[in-house]
Amino acid sequence: MTIRRVTSPTVPEPPPERWSNCLVSDGIAYVSGMTARAGNTVVGDDEYEQSKAIFGKIKGMVEAAGGAMADVVKITVYVTNIKNNVKVWQARREFFTGDFPASTLVEVSALAAPEILVEIEAIAHIGKGKR
Fold first, then answer.
1. What letters, b where the CB count within 10 A reaches 16 and e where it falls short, cover 100-122?
2. What phi and psi values does residue 33 have, to the nearest 5 degrees?
3. Is residue 131 part of a domain?
4. Residue 24 belongs to what H/E stretch?
5. Fewer CB within 10 A of the terminal residue: the chain, N end or C end?
């Protein structure tokens, strides 16, 4: 088994030795939880805008790994207010067509900073074209 670290110019890397944004092993890309953080600021002040920014980051990571959004087979979404989940799914529809990936939605009491409302992680089967 080989593990390859993937980087994307559209997604800032975490500080060294904290975590990897994306690892690929045996054709499976594992994308770490992404937030709408851009440097020291957060893009968007609601779940829709933050989710849209996050799905853009996931797209960048999956493409850097050699895949496409159609290769994403699973997402896990963490929100601080589950009542606003429709905003997350609205943004999701802008990035996925046809069969949507398997999904889990979890409400959490807090994320990395108070202004972060959504975090999303993804798994993609690179190059297999699930759709």
1. ebeeeeeeeeebeeeebbbbbbb
2. -55, 125
3. no
4. strand 22-25
5. N
In tens, the pLDDT along 10-33 reads 888 777 678 889 999 999 999 999
Residue 33 maps to a domain: yes
102-107 vs 72-79, strand pairing mode: parallel
Give me the residue label for tokens 């002040």: 45
Is residue 14 within 8 Å of residue 31, measured between CB atoms? Answer: no
Task: Determine the Cα–Cα distance for residues 31 and 59; give it in Å rounded to an integer.
Answer: 10
Q: Which of 50, 73, 87 is nearest to 130 (CA)?
A: 73
Residue 53 tokens, joined? 């920014």
* Torsion (CA) 30, 121, 68, 94 in degrees, nearest 10: 180
Give the range of the structural domain holding residue 35, as residue numbers without chain letter.
3-125
CATH of the domain at 8: 3.30.1330.40
When divided into structural domains, the chain yields a total of 1
Q: Which two tokens stand for residue 18?
A: 């904290």
Residue whose tokens read 């904290």: 18
